Amino acid sequence: MTGFPAVRLRRLRRSPASRALVRETRLSPDRFVAPFFVRRGRGVREAIGSLPGVDRLSPDEAVAAGQELRSLGVPAVILFGIPERKDENGSEAWDDAGAVQETVRALKQSVPGLLVMTDVCLDEYTSHGHCGIVRDGEVDNDATLPLLAKAAVSHARAGADVVAPSDMMDGRVSAIRGALDAESLPGVAILAYSAKSASAFYGPFREAAGSAPKFGDRRGYQMDGANRREAMREIALDLEEGADAVMVKPALAYLDVIHEARGRFDAPIAAYNVSGEYAMVKAAAGNGWIDERRIVLEILTGIVRAGADFVLTYHARDAARWLAEGGLEA
Fold first, then answer.
1. CA 201 – CA 275 distance, rounded (Å)
2. Which of 113, 174, 251, 254 has the fewest Cβ atoms within 10 Å of its own Cβ atom?
3. Residue 184, Cα to own-chain centre: how many angstroms?
């Protein structure tokens, strides 16, 4: 006998205990990676207007924030550098005394259980705001690859566990893998921003990092967000070149891309719950229009349910705390 009244799916929804027992997607702090914006100095915490609750941090403040995250069960951070100077080539990206490199060393010394990832890109460091070398008004793909490799090696020498190229240059994973191996750094992993779309959701990040392009846009190298099949090609190529894990960015408008990638590839898949997604939630919550806690946990559950193994999110600290307090049922 099938169907109502013998089958009543509400039976296992009657209590928090029964719902927990049969919950298919389980959200936990060990799925989160917290983004940090880091700059040189000491005792620096600079609020970012469009990212309430997120600050630019000096290395010592990054250590304090990393220690708090570890106490909440968050295993990893990813660092984005705020340079003191910019030039046409973005040379501070591979400065061994740069903010990212200094923060990596501080975190590895003071929070040894924390996994430290670093973003590898030139846009924060270039005077023109693009992710590579500009020649005749366009980003020169092949001329950019050696510079990305230099930055990745510098981060790895400082102690980074994972380097994460976000530039979307063709061949960058191969160039970085080759450079790391040549420098006797074969244990450093690569998380490739493989399916990174040219998106309007990046606005607050560009304020935080000071990385808006001074001319044009990035649609000539970041993906067209309308192309899901092309996203699968990007992921496949990065894995062939040696990526250890791949990323879909942004997350919320690209859950179908995450889901298809999960079905096609056995590699770890990350999703970036980006700055615009975070800022919209904070703005709506600030106006009393939504329940921030419930919305955030629902969003993160949806990203994991779509197939992400881990999520880069500015909500990491709050979400970890809420999960400790009872999560979805609190």
1. 7
2. 113
3. 26
> Is 150 assigned a catalytic role?
no
- CB burial of residue 325 (10 Å; 0-12, 13-18, 19+): exposed
Say whether pLDDT at 29 is over 70: yes
- Pick the catalytic residue from 86, 150, 214, 249: 249
Q: At what angle do helices 172-182 and 141-158 cross, to 10 degrees?
A: 40
Whether 249 is catalytic: yes
Give the domains, in start order, of the chain with CATH numbers. Answer: 26-329 (3.20.20.70)
What's the rounded Cα separation, in Å, for the pair 38 and 36? 6
pLDDT in tens, 207-262: 888 888 888 888 999 999 999 999 999 999 999 999 999 999 999 999 999 999 99
Catalytic, out of 108, 196, 214, 282:
196
Residue 62 has pLDDT above 80, yes or no: yes
